[in-house]
Amino acid sequence: MAQFDVHRNTGKNREAIPFVVLVQSAIFDSYRRRVVVPLVRKSSLGAISDERFNPTFKIERIEVVLHPLEIVSIPNEKLGEFVKSIAEQGSRIMDALDVLLSRAWG
What count of Cα atoms within 13 Å lies in the side-chain half-sphere of residue 55? Predict the structure, then answer.
């Protein structure tokens, strides 16, 4: 498991949220949980008002949107099958998390 790996969502909302992306730093790999952000089907969302906060990706021919407000940690054993790495898009994911977590907005 590596940062920015995409895994299948094994939760009950897997139709609307087919994937999650691992965002946790590798320095926490020995911990028993992983921090992930849902990748929501674009077709199940309305208009995207801020592409920086909600970047779009194509995973297995499905357009999905990063949904940082739904960030969660899950037990390692609940992490679904590895699909692919989107490490080349890591800066877009970190930009979205920066918007969520920075003090820039007061």
Answer: 19
